[in-house]
Design a protein that fits this description.
Elements (H helix, E strand, L loop, with lengths): L7 H12 L31 H46 L7 H17 L4 H27 L4
Helix pairs in contact: 1-2, 2-4, 3-4
């Protein structure tokens, strides 16, 4: 599967808890997200809403959107934690078999794959690449630390 063995149920339960009862996992992806309610029109010729009504609506809409963003941010953090659990295991495996911390060919494949995913999700591929490069740099740093702890600094 897509998760470390034995962690999928725990991860999905955490994700459901973070997203809350009003958000389904499948709704988090941009293509499936429910559309924002259309703002109520304000007609100047027959102004029926007061400034306080507009402010209340805007405030409620901002709060709703920000709550969704906060839930997604929490899900991203938990997904990154899950990813780093897996990469830590990779680091230990690499160290045990004296493999280098970095794998440029794999990284290039991952960048190409992530750029494609970003395009299909209507996300800037350059941004997705920068994000992956940042994550991979951190993973390599962890792998170097694991290798040093496993073999010692003079190995």
């Amino acid at each position: 599967g897509r998760f470390l063995p034995g962690f999928e149920d725990e991860f999905l339960a955490d994700l459901d808890r973070i997203l809350g009862p009003r958000v389904k996992r499948e709704d988090v992806h941009g293509d499936n997200a429910p559309p924002s309610p259309t703002p109520r029109p304000v007609r100047l010729s027959s102004l029926t809403m007061t400034t306080s009504d507009i402010d209340e609506y805007a405030t409620a809409e901002l709060n709703r959107l920000r709550e969704s963003i906060d839930n997604i941010d929490a899900a991203v953090v938990h997904m990154l934690a899950e990813r780093f659990k897996a990469t830590q295991q990779v680091g230990h495996l690499k160290a045990a078999h004296h493999l280098p911390p970095a794998d440029p060919a794999r990284e290039a494949r991952q960048i190409a794959r992530l750029r494609q995913l970003a395009e299909s999700a209507r996300l800037d591929p350059a941004f997705a690449e920068k994000l992956l490069n940042f994550i991979v740099a951190e993973v390599i740093r962890h792998h170097e630390r694991i290798a040093e702890e496993t073999t010692g600094p003079d190995a």
